[in-house]
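Pasting as-is:
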Amino acid sequence: MNTVNKSPRRSAFLTVFLKEVKENLRDRRTLMSAFLTGPLLGPILLVLLLNVTLNRELEKAEKPLPVPVIGAEYAPNLVDALKVGGVVPGAAVADPAQAVRKQEADVVLRIASDYGRAWRKGEPVQVELFYDSSQRDANTSVERVTRLVESYARQQGAMRLVARGMSPGTAWPLQVARRDQATPQSRAVLLFAMLPYFFVITIFMGGMYLAIDLTAGERERQSLEPLFANPVARWKILCGKLAAICVFSIVSLLITLLAFAVVGQFIPAEKIGMELDLGAHFAAYVLLLMLPLVLLLAALQSMVAAFAKSYREAQTYISLLMLVPIIPSAVLSFMPVKAQAWMYAVPLLGQNLGIMQLLRGDGVTGEQLVLCLAGSLAAALLAVLATIQLYRSEKLAISV
């Protein structure tokens, strides 16, 4: 029986939308991608990595640190000061450079044999720290030993001045007073600079298989029978498909926001002087910022998949498209820039800046919100119009 005759009041848009949603709810691959893999994998992996990394660094900063010391007998007072700071002097190694390169030790301290003579004469003395800056795992150990040696040097320098009847401040005629204005919440940006990319990837994963199946998948299956007995405008069919993609993407994003709100409670941010708020306020603003982007990405995915002749080819094209959203996050991570008003009108970049401000606790102003929504919505409408034009020019009928 004709579907239109069954429901004369139901528009073609709504008919296509409901059909695609129902069909893809039966598809395990689509459900896994939209509601499990994309939304949950990112938050879980991020929390696990952060917990492992932070706990390991905190443990290194607190537990006794074994450090091979060459020439410990020449500077017993320095060695005692290191012991007070939690350093456990170890046996000397024959080749400190080789020991560090082979990761047999994070850092090696070498004291010259003329240390005592120069010290008694009041001359500057030097100790050597061997380390490998390319070994990120050793950075905490290196900084810890460096801080203890420099602290001991300042203390001994002040005592020398006092012994000569001079004020210790004589050696430091100018002092810099640092006033760090960062708040515990704003410092969280240092750990979560890539968080906006997680949200964009979630939107991608939520609608990706649906977008591929509604374009290249139907072409590959050659399912060209029209849904309606009467002619239906292709733009109505396409809008119904886009609406279905957007719904899956939005639900996927909501699951991710909920997941981050839950797993965020297990990140030991307070141990490193940070404060993380991924609750309802944060989620509501992220959802609002991302809504135009959902439509934009749905249109782009449909457009890219329409050029493919097979399901696998469409997967390849859309996988390459997924690399584009990482550009704003990478640029802001490696090349920090001062945000300008016009940047919020740039799709992806505006969302990235807005989410970073939410993480910092600064909030998003009304002007920034309007620019972000207007710029992304304009780009989304252009993408939709371009996709409609592409579908109108297709020689093959668009299957529904």
